[in-house]
Amino acid sequence: MKAATCASTLLAVFALLTALTARADEYDDTIAIFKKAGQSGTFFAKSYGYAVFPTIGKGGLGVGAAHGSGRVYAKGKQIGDTTMNQVSVGLQAGGQAFSQIIFFQDQRALEEFTSGNFEFGANVQAVAITAAAGASAGTSGTSAGASGGKQDAATVGEFHKGMAVFTVAKGGLMYEASIAGQKFKYKPL
């Protein structure tokens, strides 16, 4: 009986470690994509920190919603976790998944984001790294630029009120002409 319990415990620990490793790789892989993707790569060196969301799922038919979980980093070290929720209203149909990164220009911008519940208004724009991201990948349903692929992005990203947002489409198809805002919750480690 003890051998079976020990084996079950070891199997459970192994499964947990495998799941944690896979989750860590998801974040590392997403960060690597943004580091290699044109202008977004330059933001790592000139930013105080960033929040990265490996996958945000989005869907809608008239009324839409999106959700994703992420991590917040300051000076390259994880300082907390975050979640993003979005509700949109307008002409929209379909579903998609995308990755998103928000760069914080300085400590003030990071503190504003991590102060509790932070919200992007409907007028904030994200730079779409792939042409497939279209106009629906941003926080407002529009994007400031696009490119032919993840590795050769010719983006037009810049800081706005201390933050810059980039997205990479992962899959799906969504037509959207809507108004939306993203709301974030932060939890320190």
Characterization of this structure:
The protein is α+β, with helices and mostly antiparallel strands and 189 residues long. It has one domain. It has helices at residues 2-36, 43-46, 107-114, and strands at 49-74, 77-104, 117-120, 127-128, 163-188. Strands 1, 2, 3, 4 and 5 form a five-stranded mixed sheet that branches. The longest helix is centred in the first third of the chain and has 35 residues, at 2-36. It starts with a helix and ends with a strand.
Secondary structure topology:
Blueprint: H1 2-36, H2 43-46, E1 49-74, E2 77-104, H3 107-114, E3 117-120, E4 127-128, E5 163-188
Parallel strand pairs: 4-5
Antiparallel strand pairs: 1-2, 2-5, 3-5
Content-based structural category: alpha+beta
- How many domain regions? 1
**What's the main sheet like?**
5 strands, mixed
From the spread of the alpha carbons, the general shape counts as: globular
Primary descriptors:
189 residues, alpha+beta, five-stranded mixed sheet, 46% strand
Summarize the structure.
The protein has 189 residues and is of the alpha+beta class. Helix content is 25%, strand content 46%. It has helices at residues 2-36, 43-46, 107-114, and strands at 49-74, 77-104, 117-120, 127-128, 163-188.
